[in-house]
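ingest -> validate -> predict -> emit
validate: passed (alphabet ok, no gaps, 415 aa)
predict: started
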Amino acid sequence: MGLLHLSRELTMDGFEPALERLLARIEELGAITDTPGSLTRTFLSPANLQAARQVTAWMEAAGLKTEHAAGGTIRGILPGKDPSLPPLLLGSHLDTVIDAGKYDGALGVLIALAALEAAGPLDFPVHVLGFSDEEGVRFHATYLGSRACVGQLTDEMLAIRDANGISLGEALEREGWHEGASSFSYENSSSKGYVEVHIEQGRVLDELKEAVCGVSAICGQSRLSIKLLGQADHAGTTPMPLRYDALTGAAECILEAESLAVYNEGLVATVGKLDVKPGASNAIPGEVKFTLDFRHPDDAKRERLLANLLERFGVITKRRKLQLSWDLVQSNAAVPCSEALTGSLLDALEKHVRARFTIPSGAGHDAVMMSTVMPVAMLFVRCRAGLSHHPEEYAGPRDIAVALRVLVDFLQSVR
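emit:
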């Protein structure tokens, strides 16, 4: 089915050309990269700034007043019939992971612009934001764009350094988009709220064969570095009962984490990295370090389950005569989405899909930072096979059309 036919099934008036432009812009933006042959745009890279300039040009063509920060975040403002009213914020991020797909982040910015093109006059102002960094590839610190927009780029944050030893503050000074730059940020109660459209990055919608759904909360997250210390020894001469094998102990702990997550709904637990010493095929591992990523939409449950898991790790290591230690590397609280904004999104959603429902987001989003000063809501769009952070990441035109219609209906319902 052609895109023109597809859009006629779902649209009237200005919706059809807005959808066509949205789909074309996704492709055009997806070709802006620092690495020919794959898609990569990192904080303040040439492609990152080129993408920001391109989206700014599209905003201006749509009649929005634009501005940009030195850090590369862009903002387009549609004043509405009454510019004195608190604005509604829409948006997402323009940076990518390395060798990325073209929908993560970019869809949320471009669909916001398309929705304004299709919605017609609105009573209130709308701000469309394209954040310069959410993924945290360069500085290994996420949400740099949205942090700046809520006044949370602290001196401590400005001191963090990239792999080349350049601090965030130095990068902003030397590499920032200074020409014509302005400073903009949001404070408590200064807006109606922030709404972000994003691919799901999971398989729930794909399994349910639904185009879109609401988001109930962004999961809280704990990241730990865990160390098991045993005794390195000769693999051929040490009898099995006399071994203090740190790797087999770690394996049992990892399976314990998996089992806990399987039997507790909403919990996901992942060990993504192992460091084994001495790391020789003929040596019993004497030391193992592994990471633990632990997420749940309810902070109290996350903390209780994590305490239970660490207690179980202690039982395992004591039985195996291993030493156990851990460091909490990162802890982010869960972010509940606004019931009022989410309810309005779901009211718009149920006109176009079979089921009205929400799911929690296991991934972090710019909505995490924006929630510190305003209510937030999110709309998830089906991602084929749940594949994301990958060149084959894909959201179909039909699903994007449904999401655009939902966002337009939502905008027209906001008071």
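The first helix runs from residue 3 to 10.
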